[in-house]
Amino acid sequence: MWFRLLAVCIGIWGISGCAFQAERASSDTANQAFEADKAAVQALFDQPYIDPLTRFLKQPQGQQLPQDLQNKIRVERDRRCQAVAQEYAQRPLTAQSLARYRAGYQYSCPDDVDAFAERLKVQSKDSNQAAETASGQSDEVSDDPDAAAETQRQQTTSTASVGADAISSQQLNDCYLLTQIRNFSDALDACQEPAEKGYVKAQRNMAMMAYTLEDYERARLWAEKAASQSGQAANILGEMYAQGQGVNVDLAQARHWFLEAVRLGYAKAQSRLETLPADESQ
After folding, report:
1. 22, 52, 134, 225: most buried, per Cβ within 10 A?
2. Residue 278 DSSP code
3. Same domain for 124 and 203
4. For residue 271, what is the domain's CATH number?
5. Is the Cβ–Cβ distance between 178 and 171 less than 8 Å?
6. How buried is 43 (Cβ within 10 angstroms: 0-12 exposed, 13-18 middle, 19+ buried)?
7. Can you spell out the DSSP letters for 89-147?
8. How many domains does the chain have?
9. Domain for residue 193, yes or no?
10. Measured CA distances, 191 to 140, 199, 212, 237 (Å)
11. pTM > 0.70: yes or no
12. According to the UniProt record, where is the region Disordered (predicted)?
């Protein structure tokens, strides 16, 4: 009987030993894979360019990384985009600067490039209005004193109107610039009034800043106002429903808003659609 008991014990020990060895081998393989992933991410961080980070995130190898490593790459990419945005904020606001910005950074930093383009658009509008006002003042001449006085009154009213528009345009410019360089404390103040008056890009900026600051209720409020015309705002709603940020997880809603973002030309939403889990409730 003792021999039988000893044999049983040896058998159990052998089985448990094999299981332990298999578990250890599996753990070693997982650790090796994780270390390889970390090395790949570190290699990306060691090189100075931005586009390799974006390309890696879109490749199968990047999409198969653990979520925390993917997030680290996104944070690093955004940090580098922010540094470039701050540099371009000091450059002349010209079409040439915009062309150079687009050529170098449109792929990885499209939102920052778009913000620069918006500032240039606002500046061009102001310049055109000022030129039209000056032209009108020089062309209006009359020998009739009463008519001259009326003309002067109309020009004064027109100039005041242009001045009011210029203040609004300056506020928009501040909104776009401060958001671009991530000065959110001042940008929130600059964007608030234009957003309340229905400027979609200001509403988008308010949504983006609130989302970044994890104020999800405020982010949803502004994103919903802008989402029909702004791909980035629609994408923010997609992320919120996909990750349960301020709302319950709803993959159907997430897919809807990512599709809307793609329709509006927001390229980043396409990669999120491809990695979105299937909606098992359907």
Report:
1. 225
2. P
3. no
4. 1.25.40
5. no
6. exposed
7. HTS--SHHHHHHHHHHHTTT-HHHHHHHHHHHHHHHHHHHHHHHHHHHHHH---S-HHH
8. 2
9. no
10. 38, 9, 15, 20
11. no
12. 124-164
